[in-house]
Amino acid sequence: MTEIGFVGLGTMGSAMARRLVDAGHTVRVWNRSAAAAAPLVAAGAVAAESPAEALETGLVFSMLANDAAADAVFSAEALAASTRRPALHVNMASVSPALARALASRHADAGVGYVAAPVLGRVNLAAEGKLNILAGGDPALVDGVLPYLTVMGQRVWRIGEEPAQANLVKIAVNFNIIHAMEAIGESIAIVESHGVDASGFVELLTSTLFGGVSYTGYGDIIAHRRYQPAGFTLPLGLKDLGLAEDAAAEVGITLPTAPALRRVFETALAQPGAEALDWSAIAEVSRNSAG
Amino acid sequence: MTEIGFVGLGTMGSAMARRLVDAGHTVRVWNRSAAAAAPLVAAGAVAAESPAEALETGLVFSMLANDAAADAVFSAEALAASTRRPALHVNMASVSPALARALASRHADAGVGYVAAPVLGRVNLAAEGKLNILAGGDPALVDGVLPYLTVMGQRVWRIGEEPAQANLVKIAVNFNIIHAMEAIGESIAIVESHGVDASGFVELLTSTLFGGVSYTGYGDIIAHRRYQPAGFTLPLGLKDLGLAEDAAAEVGITLPTAPALRRVFETALAQPGAEALDWSAIAEVSRNSAG
Amino acid sequence: MTEIGFVGLGTMGSAMARRLVDAGHTVRVWNRSAAAAAPLVAAGAVAAESPAEALETGLVFSMLANDAAADAVFSAEALAASTRRPALHVNMASVSPALARALASRHADAGVGYVAAPVLGRVNLAAEGKLNILAGGDPALVDGVLPYLTVMGQRVWRIGEEPAQANLVKIAVNFNIIHAMEAIGESIAIVESHGVDASGFVELLTSTLFGGVSYTGYGDIIAHRRYQPAGFTLPLGLKDLGLAEDAAAEVGITLPTAPALRRVFETALAQPGAEALDWSAIAEVSRNSAG
Amino acid sequence: MTEIGFVGLGTMGSAMARRLVDAGHTVRVWNRSAAAAAPLVAAGAVAAESPAEALETGLVFSMLANDAAADAVFSAEALAASTRRPALHVNMASVSPALARALASRHADAGVGYVAAPVLGRVNLAAEGKLNILAGGDPALVDGVLPYLTVMGQRVWRIGEEPAQANLVKIAVNFNIIHAMEAIGESIAIVESHGVDASGFVELLTSTLFGGVSYTGYGDIIAHRRYQPAGFTLPLGLKDLGLAEDAAAEVGITLPTAPALRRVFETALAQPGAEALDWSAIAEVSRNSAG
């Protein structure tokens, strides 16, 4: 097995890196706070002193927390400082399409390949290698990393030849989730106010015309108002809504419902402590509007 | 088997009445244009000369085309003219909650029981007895008609003791469908404009986080723009959206996205010939907004 | 709500009776050891002093442990001693078709109606009212108890006009489960002996061509050899296999695999302590046969 | 895109090769009767004059009809006659484990890599790229062909490092299908003889405890006795049963039901014309045994 790098060891990154270690690869792992690397090192990974060291393997996967972290760790300087070529960076985090384009260009300038491979699925699926992976980038580069992606995910979806397209599709999926949560919230507000039980209504929805974890999972959370611990917070949800708005604006597309959805997020976030709530707490806005 | 009545023989009503005939019941059937009764009579039903004759059996099911038809056929005069008591009317059409309340009151005045039992499912499921039936009304009355409802549906959902509650839940389900169609339309508009194939995107959605016929069925229709023949037309969709708005307004609930959804329907309907399109054609509004 | 009786308060019977209590019915409950009635009485049920007292309500459901218990509690003497007529007994336990026929005849002699309504589903589904109920008997009698059956189950399947037919179908379903468990066991024995992981193989089966709890549930149990606590024991499984053999023999049908399946059960039961194992432990017979 | 070869253009092979052509690869196709290549050539493939020519690309996939064909086309002589090295042969047909071992050894002698990649799924799934692919062989070789396998299948299952293990797992999956068909057949024989409708019984099974195409697909075929056209014939089914028996015997495992299943196949095949029937026609053996 070859030696590879993995940068960004939050809960998702750690679970994904662990799959690679367990599959027999030598994985040089790095995280800003080094403690996160300990369990992986115990399982057989090698601690890298710096992201550059991980990149020097020639193939580095990253799952950094946000755009700023990805931007900083894979700066032009950092890329230029690495010497190993050919080299490839597979960014599995859900960065913005704008950063994806900047990173693609920056990597190209440095002679490093760049593939976007954001994922659908939470940490439990990551641990079982059952993520859905949305791959964007040069098909030959994607081909080359399929052996690793198929260890981390049950299915790899080829989205397009531009890395940013994969990030865009991830945003479009999340936009559908926002709609589903809002629809559940508004419709529960209606039926509850007329004396119909919310959880019975959700059972009806999900036993008949609606399925998938978007409806079953969020329906259950909303019916029982279990917004903590958050799987994905309200501020992150609002950020993703903004990315959908940006992606539409860029090509002159109108998203008729987006302004209303934005106001819902803002109303939800105006409550004290709302930053820590799951994004499905937008459902409370309609519920709370009842006299 | 007892004798019962069935009024309103459109494609849905005919399929439902046929189930009752095939189960061995003597069914007195009536339709405004009598020709619709012919296939049922050939299968063993008895043609009634008037709705009153169907009501005289003591138990009549109805599946009339719209509020106006239900209001006219089950007028105070018609109910008063029937003499058989006890008598029960099970209204399986998706009338407005307002009419449901008016009918419940009117039937009570005439000493006739009233149950609302709107359905989820199209004519193919009706023919196989696999509808989902949303039953609202006096539990003892609902109990009494379970032998008939379980012939027409695979599952009977007890919604509440007021008939109008069942109609309200049907509207809330449809409101979720409207949201799903709009979310699919807006997100397809985004990804298509960035070079991603619509049907591949729908396959991704429905293979991962979204399921049920709302997403699989409408996703497929929207991806391929197959808006004709319509399963449910744009004007009917807009009417149902209005019923959701009314139901919310009645109890002082705010539906943040409803005004935007209404504008989408209105924009879609402004196109020539749009009245005949499936309601999922609302998805074209965002797609058409692209430069 | 009417007053009804419920006899036999094991874990399944208690969960089912509880649904009836929670739906607002007055339920006279009886169990051989009276302590089992306490939680139900706390929830609003009324303790009956004898099965006869439950039968005197005119409608009694039973979920007794086995044929012998049902035979004893609903003896000709017990039925004759009850005076309330009309009266109906709905037997929801999985008794043998032979006893079903004897009970049907005995009840008829006493002027008491008899319906068989065995169920699919364990106690968790019973508690949620999501059992599948297989109803056999006079359609008018089944119609009359639908209000109660739909409280205990999500779907009522009309099997036929003879009560024994419902018990027979239950046995035929269980025969399919036995085959599924044996197929899983034999095929795991093959692949494991050739170095393929059992749980990976089960995941493959259930992600591709096989589904439903028979394959997913028992596949998981067998892959990980979790035969305790038993959901349904080996001796009960062998008894059900015998009932399938009897049902076939009665009409001159050959079941080619039954003798082999019987030997598998007997081999499994020859191990010390096997009586307490789940019936899926038959899968170990092939696994243990490996040199 | 690289140039590759594809040998064996039956309905499955043609659909699979077409996926590779449509993905932009240059595919040298060969079939014993050359006419089968015409549609692929029209779609952009290149006709090879001989299997050797396809092998000369350095990477050849094969989907030949049976063991004999695979054995003949990939003879030691044919392999030795090819000069291109490194070279890899991915055999996607369901050959016997014995031939898989012989081929693996023969290829190794010739310095050609060998991977087994039998598939689950019929031609409709092949055409949509939704096969499940069971991959066995050197992990590095499997890694290298993932770009092609993920074009033909929705998911690639890594079975083990020996090619024969993948063929063995395919046999074990088919053994489960045989059991399912036999269980359906025997249980339908029982219930039908007692007056219960076969298709209603299958609907009960597949709506409750059994799912996946094994139960839904074969349940439907058996209930309605639609054994023609055959998806997979009785003689092929008996051959696969024999392979399961061989695989068990090789490691000293006892398959208790196999002798009975073999007799069922032999009895089914004793009927005139049975060779052309679908293997699920084994279900008729019990049904026909009824007096």
Automatic annotation (TrEMBL), chains A, B, C, D:
Residue numbers annotated as active site: K170
Pfam families named in the record: NAD_binding_11 (PF14833), NAD_binding_2 (PF03446)
Record-annotated 3-hydroxyisobutyrate dehydrogenase-like NAD-binding domain positions: 165-284
Alphabetized GO MF terms: NAD binding; NADP binding; oxidoreductase activity
Keyword terms of this UniProt record: NAD, Oxidoreductase
InterPro entries, per the entry: 3-OH-isobutyrate_DH-rel_CS (IPR002204), 6-PGluconate_DH-like_C_sf (IPR008927), 6PGD_dom2 (IPR013328), 6PGDH_NADP-bd (IPR006115), HIBADH-like_NADP-bd (IPR029154), HIBADH-related (IPR015815), HIBADH-related_NP60_sf (IPR051265), NAD(P)-bd_dom_sf (IPR036291)
Residue span(s) of domain 6-phosphogluconate dehydrogenase NADP-binding: 3-160
Family: Belongs to the HIBADH-related family.
PANTHER family, A to Z: CYTOKINE-LIKE NUCLEAR FACTOR N-PAC, OXIDOREDUCTASE GLYR1-RELATED
Name of the protein this chain belongs to: NAD(P)-dependent oxidoreductase
